[in-house]
């Protein structure tokens, strides 16, 4: 009698588990309907004097999401809070939004970013111009942090700007560097 009860209980329990696992139990409810994601309504801001807006889509490189929003070219001199400095050629200013959409901290390194000219040459930021204009070389980006800043380049006077190559930091635990992502500026 006891053996029969154990077998019956085991069979009943197996049947319940099988029904739960195979999906032959209660009918499933309809799939959730797609609803649009809520967005922030940010007020438009005027473009700065001498700058033209760039309507580029956001791009991602590893843990960095970037959006180019403005460009100034042909600047012969820059003025900062404590200095003025002439360009060796021409200053080019690329206004970007940098975001860390990851769950871990990340780092942005302005010194890795490159301006690409029409002849294919790549130029690093001008660290002296960055310092005069009080723009960071490197900065930590916490999870979900978003900042807006300028990248200052000093390129030959006759060079034509083609693109900017933006580099994010590799994801946590990954060694090496990223290949970057190019955003056209023409």
Automatic annotation (TrEMBL):
Keyword Signal: yes
Amino acid composition bias (Low complexity), ranges on this chain: 29-39
Key word Signal present: yes
Keywords tagged on the record: Signal
Chain segments carrying region Disordered: 25-59
Highest rank taxon of the organism: Bacteria
Name of protein: DUF4352 domain-containing protein
Organism: Streptosporangium roseum (strain ATCC 12428 / DSM 43021 / JCM 3005 / KCTC 9067 / NCIMB 10171 / NRRL 2505 / NI 9100)
